[in-house]
Design a protein that fits this description.
heterodimer, A: 241 residues, Rossmann fold, two-stranded antiparallel ribbon, B: 135 residues, alpha+beta, hypothetical protein PF0899 fold, 2 domains, 3-stranded antiparallel beta sheet, binds adenosine-5'-triphosphate, binds magnesium ion, binds zinc ion
C-alpha cells in the first residue's frame, strides 16, 4: 500500500523559487503577523508571492489580512485564490469556521493532502505560516519541502528564547538553512537576544517594537501597512533574499 | 477535478515503483479509494486513462472502494462514514482535506470529535503488477 501524494509535492512546488517557513519553537510570538506582513511586503515590492497557513488548530493569517468569502478553484487540483496580491491557501477554506481538533497523524495527513493538491504555479516566494513548536507540521515541511528555509521569530523573553534556542539547534542538526531570527514585541532596547542568537550561530535580523496600535489595524491591509510594526518589519524583510 | 491531482500521484508513484522493481511494463494497477474522501470514480478513472504512459499502455486499472471506517477514541464505538448525513459544503471540504471531517462529524455514541480514521480515508495505490524484461 503506497500513499500516492508525497511524490507529488515536489512537482507542485517546482515553479516556486524560494520557500520560507515562518516559525518559532514558542507560541504567540508573532509568527502569523510576520508571515502575513512578509507576504504583503514582497507583493508590494512586485514579487509574485504565495502564503500558506499551515496552522490547522489556530489559523490566523486570514484574520490578520481580512480574508473572507474566498474559496480555491478546483482545476486539476486546487488553485489558491489571489487576494491582496497574494496567492493564498489555508485550512480555513475547508474548516468553514468550525474548530478542527486534530491529532498528530491527522495533522500530517492534512498537510500532505494540501501540499499535494495545491497548484501554486510560478512564484518568487512562498511564505508558510507555521504552528508553534517542533511538532508534526515542522517535521513534515522539513521532510517534504526540499530547499525550505526557516525564518525564526522570538520575543525578548528568556522563556521564549529558551525554546527558540533548541529549535535553532535542531535546524542546524538537520542542516536546514536558517535565514535568521526576528525579535518581536520589544519594549526597550536590550541585547540579550541578539547576543544569544549570534552565540548560537544564527543571524540576528533585528527587532520589531511592541506596537500599541497594531490591534486596531488587524483585518485591514491598508491600515496594517501604515503601522509602526509594518515599517519596522519591512526594514528587516528587505535584508531577506 | 481534484481527482486529476490524485490520479497524477497514482501514475507517478506507480512509475517509481515499476522503475525500482525493474518492470518493463505494468499490467495492472490496483487503487483503493476511501469513501470518506468521496472521490468521483468516473473522473478518477478518466484521469488515469488520460495520464497513461507507454509503460502502462495496456495496464488494467482496478478501482476498489473502501468504506470509511471510524473509531471513537473515547468510547471505542466503530462506525462507517455515511455522506448522506453531511451537508454539501461540508462534503466538499472533506473531499479536499478528509481530516476536516473532525470539524463536522462526531461519534454517534458519545458525540466526541476525537475519532480515528481506521481505513477508507483517501486514495491509495494498493499494488502494481508487471513484467520484467527476462519474464
Ligand atoms: N510587535 C507587536 N506589537 C503588538 N502586538 C503584536 C506584535 N506582534 C504580534 N502582536 C500581537 O500578538 C498576538 C500574537 O501574534 P501572532 O498571532 O502573530 O503570534 P503567533 O506566533 O502566530 O501565535 P501562534 O503561536 O498562536 O500561532 C496577536 O494578537 C498580534 O496582533
Ligand atoms: Mg500563528
Ligand atoms: Zn464515542
Amino acid at each position: 500500500m503506497t500513499d500516492p501524494r508525497p511524490g507529488l509535492i515536489g512537482r507542485r512546488l517546482e515553479g516556486v523559487d524560494g520557500i520560507i517557513a515562518v516559525s518559532s519553537g514558542k507560541g504567540g510570538v508573532g509568527k502569523s503577523m510576520v508571515a502575513s506582513t512578509l507576504a504583503l511586503h514582497l507583493a508590494e515590492k512586485g514579487h509574485s508571492v504565495g502564503l500558506l497557513d499551515l496552522d490547522f488548530t489556530s489559523p490566523a493569517t486570514h484574520v490578520i489580512l481580512g480574508i473572507d468569502g474566498l474559496f480555491p478553484e478546483e482545476e486539476y487540483g486546487i488553485i489558491p485564490p489571489v487576494t491582496h496580491g497574494i496567492n493564498y491557501m489555508s485550512i480555513t477554506f475547508f474548516a468553514l469556521d468550525k474548530p478542527t481538533p486534530l491529532r498528530g497523524a491527522d495533522v500530517s495527513d492534512a498537510i500532505t493532502e494540501l501540499l499535494a493538491i495545491t497548484r501554486w504555479g510560478d512564484l518568487d516566494r512562498l511564505i508558510i505560516d507555521m504552528p508553534p513548536g517542533l511538532g508534526d507540521a515542522t517535521l513534515d515541511v522539513i521532510r517534504f519541502i526540499e530547499g525550505i528555509r526557516f525564518l525564526v521569530v522570538t520575543t525578548p523573553s528568556k522563556v521564549a528564547y529558551e525554546t527558540v534556542r533548541k529549535q535553532l539547534a535542531l535546524l542546524k542538526k538537520l542542516q536546514i538553512p536558517i535565514i535568521g531570527v526576528v525579535e518581536n514585541m520589544t519594549r526597550e532596547p536590550t541585547d540579550y537576544v541578539s547576543l544569544k542568537v549570534e552565540n548560537d550561530g544564527a543571524q540576528y535580523l533585528g527587532a520589531i517594537g511592541y506596537d500599541e496600535r497594531l490591534e486596531e489595524s488587524i483585518g485591514d491591509e491598508a491600515r496594517l501597512k501604515e503601522t509602526k510594526f509594518y515599517a519596522e518589519a519591512s526594514k528587516l524583510y528587505s535584508k531577506i533574499n | 477535478m481534484h481527482e486529476w491531482a490524485l490520479a497524477e500521484g497514482v501514475i507517478q508513484t506507480a512509475t517509481g515503483i515499476a522503475e525500482e522493481q525493474g518492470l518493463e511494463k505494468i499490467t495492472e494497477i490496483v487503487v483503493r479509494i476511501g469513501e470518506l474522501q468521496q472521490i468521483e470514480h468516473d473522473i478518477l478513472q478518466f484521469a488515469l486513462e488520460q495520464l497513461r504512459t507507454p509503460l502502462m499502455k495496456d495496464a488494467k486499472y482496478t478501482l476498489e472502494t473502501i468504506p470509511g471506517k471510524l473509531k471513537c477514541r473515547i468510547c471505542d464505538e466503530e462506525w462507517t462514514f455515511n455522506p448522506q448525513g453531511v451537508g454539501e459544503a461540508e462534503s466538499e471540504a472533506i473531499h479536499f482535506v478528509p481530516e476536516v471531517a473532525h470539524a463536522y462529524i462526531s461519534c454517534p455514541s458519545c458525540g466526541s470529535p476525537d475519532f480515528q480514521i481506521l481505513e477508507g480515508r483517501g486514495v491509495l495505490l494498493a499494488s502494481i503488477t508487471g513484467v520484467k524484461p527476462d519474464d
